[in-house]
Every structure is written in C-alpha cells, then in structure tokens.
C-alpha cells in the first residue's frame, strides 16, 4: 500500500429530513442543539461510528480492516492479544513491547490507524493519534425539533394487558428535525499517517465511507439522511500549503433568497471560490 504524502482538508455536507441525526442522552435523546444559536449539532463521535460501521460491513473484518471500537468488543482482550504476535514476543524491554504492540494494533484495526485510540487499559499498547480528525457538524440554519406522539399496539407483560382492559396501545414520543443541512470540517495529516501506517488506499476507503455510510445505516429514528457534498482540498506537501480555515472560507452554503423555510437540499446553494485557491492546493468535489 502506498504511503500518504499529502495533507488534506475537507468539507462534508449532509442533511436530514424528518429524523433525529444525533440524539442527546442528557436531554431525553432530543436532537443536539446549540442552546445559544439554535443551530443543530452532530458530534464527531457519531460520524466516526458510521464510518466504522461502513468499513466493518464493506470489508467484513478482513485482515487489516477489523474494527477495534465495535459492538460487544472487549477492548482489553483485543489489546492483550497483540502481545501474542511474534514481533512483540521477540522484544525484551517493556517500552519496546509497547511500541511493537502499538504497531500490531495499527496494522490490524482500520479505525485505530485512522482515528487513533487509547490502548493502555490492558497490557499496554500505547496511544495512537489518528491522522483523520473531524469537527462537530453544525447546521446552516437553526433547527426546530418536533415531538410526535406515537402508539404501540402491544404491551410488554400480561399484567399490563390486564390493566388496559383490552386496549393494548402504549403511548410514546418521537423527536425529529423536519429538515436540517449540516456542515462538518475534517483534516487528514500525512505526518500522523506515517506513524500509524494509514495509506492512500485507506484514504480512498474513508472517502467511500463518507459517500455511502448513510445508505447502510438506515433506521426509523434517523429519517432520511443523505450525503450531499464532499469537497476535498489537497495540498502539494505533507505539512500543507495554506491554513485550513482559509480554505474552508472559500466554501459558501447559503439559503436561496426566495426560500423562507428550507425543506430540501435544493433550497440551498453551495458555491466555491475556486479562483482564490492558494498556490500548492488543488480542489476535488467527490460528491
């Protein structure tokens, strides 16, 4: 696999219709919101989870593409198993074993070499700073969270059935965002990629995940979520040729003048000031 030699910065734009993109467990699982501005939020952890799920399904946990943080995984057992590798057994000093175990974990698990991990809770495989980092996604306009009453035509116990005298309906609540367009910013470090073994092929898989992860993660709670734009800035060097914030400022997402209440992606215009691209930086629209 070829080594990653360029820094990348990217803008990821996605939307949700009649769904909850990221519930807040501290607020009754209501859609996350910036209390001061009313803008909707989706955490970086939520987006990374969807990337992990896509890679797990696409690669079926094949060698080099297993997922460290996954459902029902016992992390210490996975960390401890790295010490069974010959490259770790051959080391005598503990610090050498830790470094060898870290390399084993990076080679085995896609999410470790991509996002990083703390692996000092078991036999100690050290810590990894991942080459790819994401910001919280923030909605372009304030969102309005709608609550809906729902019913279930069943009960969980016979005792409940007797109390309801033949009426088996159980009431519940469901919270949704009628429509929200979210913008996330991301960063790919070539220097950190060299430390974890993250390759160009791994990056291609990451772009693939961003483009397709909502289509393999459908649920009634999330409504219709779709990836709408993936704008990638590629630097000619590993350290980069321009500050990320200056590149992000070239991307504008604006509501159309004749739209009062947006309800679809077509109600917005996404424009890029390509003529202002700094020297040494190229742009590609992957979506």
The main sheet comes to: 8 strands, antiparallel
Q: What's the SSE pattern?
A: EEEEHHHHHEEEEEHEHHEHEEE
Q: Approximately what portion of the residues adopt beta-strand conformation?
A: 25-35%
| Rg calculated over all Cα atoms | 22 Å
Overall 3D shape: flat
Number of separate helices:
9
Low-confidence stretches: none
| Share of helix, binned | 25-40%
Q: What does the average pLDDT come to?
A: 90
**How many runs of DSSP E, i.e. beta strands?**
14
Description:
Helix content is 28%, strand content 31%. By secondary structure, the chain is an alpha+beta fold. It has one domain. Strands 1, 4, 7, 8, 9, 10, 11 and 14 form an 8-stranded antiparallel β-sheet that branches. Helix 1 (44-59) crosses helix 8 (200-212). It is flat and about 70 Å long. The two termini are 25 Å apart. The mean pLDDT is 90.
Task: Give me some keywords for this one.
9 helices, eight-stranded antiparallel β-sheet, flat, two-stranded antiparallel sheet, about 290 residues, alpha+beta
Briefly summarize what is shown.
The protein has 9 helices and 14 strands.
Q: What's the layout of helices and strands?
A:
Elements (H helix, E strand, L loop, with lengths): L7 E12 L3 E2 L5 E2 L7 E4 L1 H16 L15 H7 L4 H4 L4 H15 L1 H6 E3 L8 E3 L2 E3 L2 E6 L3 E8 L4 H6 L5 E20 L1 H7 L3 H13 L11 E12 L8 H5 L2 E5 L12 E5 L8 E5 L2
Antiparallel strand pairs: 1-10, 1-11, 2-3, 4-8, 5-6, 7-10, 8-10, 9-10, 11-14, 12-13
Helix pairs in contact: 1-8
């Amino acid at each position: 696999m070829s080594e990653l030699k360029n820094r990348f910065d990217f803008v990821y734009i996605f939307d949700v219709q009649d769904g909850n993109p990221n519930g807040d467990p501290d607020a009754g699982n209501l859609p996350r919101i910036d209390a001061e501005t009313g803008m909707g939020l989706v955490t970086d952890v939520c987006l990374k989870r969807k990337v992990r799920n896509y890679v797990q399904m696409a690669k079926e946990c094949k060698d080099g593409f297993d997922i460290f943080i996954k459902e029902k995984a016992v992390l210490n057992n996975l960390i401890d198993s790295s010490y069974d590798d010959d490259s770790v057994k051959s080391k005598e000093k503990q610090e050498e074993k830790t470094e060898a175990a870290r390399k084993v974990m990076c080679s085995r698990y896609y999410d470790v070499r991509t996002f990083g991990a703390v692996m000092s809770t078991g036999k100690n495989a050290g810590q990894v700073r991942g080459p790819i980092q994401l910001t919280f996604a923030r909605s372009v306009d304030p969102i309005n969270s709608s609550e809906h009453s729902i019913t279930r035509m069943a009960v969980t116990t016979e005792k409940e059935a007797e109390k309801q005298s033949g009426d088996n309906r159980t009431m519940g609540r469901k919270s949704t965002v009628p429509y929200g367009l979210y913008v996330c910013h991301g960063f790919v470090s070539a220097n950190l990629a060299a430390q974890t073994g993250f390759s160009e092929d791994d990056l291609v898989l990451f772009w693939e995940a961003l483009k397709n992860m909502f289509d393999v993660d459908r649920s009634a709670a999330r409504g219709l979520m779709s990836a709408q734009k993936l704008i990638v800035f590629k630097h000619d060097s590993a350290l980069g040729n321009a500050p990320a914030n200056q590149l992000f400022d070239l991307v504008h997402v604006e509501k159309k003048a004749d739209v009062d209440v947006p309800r679809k992606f077509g109600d917005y215009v996404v424009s890029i000031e390509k003529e202002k691209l700094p020297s040494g930086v190229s742009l590609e629209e992957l979506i």
